[in-house]
Design goal:
The protein folds into three domains: 2-60, no CATH class; 65-99; 100-206. 61% of the residues lie in helices and 13% in strands. It is built from four helices and six strands. A hairpin with a 5-residue loop joins strand 3 and strand 4.
């Protein structure tokens, strides 16, 4: 029979073991456990294995606590997310340098898209101007409340469209500014700095 004795500080367990497993265990409070309960109690604590002559023959670490297991899972999850972010960034970088041959290409695409949105805004503004004129006429002529309400709804709708298009323009500017900055960083790091600046298309204020 092998024996396992605890340190007097109570941080370990005093147990008696056989080839079949733990048969008797004394926990840190001094309470003894027997049979299956002994194995269950000892499995949750650090133990030191001692020979019959009192020499230490081994040590078994305590299993991790629920908090430690949760922290380990959190750490693994964060590492997985970080790896995914790095892979996505590498994919975007590769796409950026293979899509554009020069930074002027990025500015050309940016300005073309901004111009398309601006044309859409101008069309909505023209419609809005016509609707406002219609509303003024309807009110002067004391048109039906139904017709006036319909025109007002159309004005609200087109005003919202214009606001949304303005937000789209700002998002495009931000997107392509970031892409241009990153493109320059990648090209500079690769020994191919490109700093030529093309004039941006100016869009009127709403």
């Amino acid at each position: 029979m092998y024996r396992i004795f605890s340190a007097l500080l109570g941080s370990f367990l005093l147990v008696s073991v056989t080839q079949a497993g733990i048969k008797k265990c004394q926990d840190e409070t001094g309470q003894w456990h027997y049979g299956d309960r002994a194995s269950e109690a000892c499995e949750q604590s650090k133990i030191i294995e001692m020979s019959d002559s009192g020499h230490k023959t081994g040590e078994v670490a305590a299993p991790p606590t629920a908090e430690e297991l949760a922290e380990e899972e959190r750490r693994k999850d964060e590492l997985a997310k970080q790896k995914k972010r790095e892979e996505e960034e590498a994919r975007r970088d590769a796409l950026l340098v293979t899509t554009y041959g020069h930074e002027n290409d990025i500015m050309y695409v940016r300005d073309r898209k901004l111009s398309q949105v601006e044309h859409s805004i101008e069309a909505s503004q023209a419609t809005l101007k016509s609707l406002n004129a219609t509303l003024d006429r309807q009110k002067k002529q004391k048109d039906s409340e139904e017709n006036i309400k319909h025109t007002e709804d159309q004005i609200t709708k087109h005003s919202a469209v214009i606001e949304k298009k303005r937000e789209e323009q700002e998002a495009l500017r931000k997107q392509y500014d970031e892409e241009l900055k990153r493109y320059r960083e990648l090209k500079t790091a690769g020994g191919e700095p490109q700093t030529a600046e093309a004039p941006a298309i100016q869009t009127p204020n709403p």
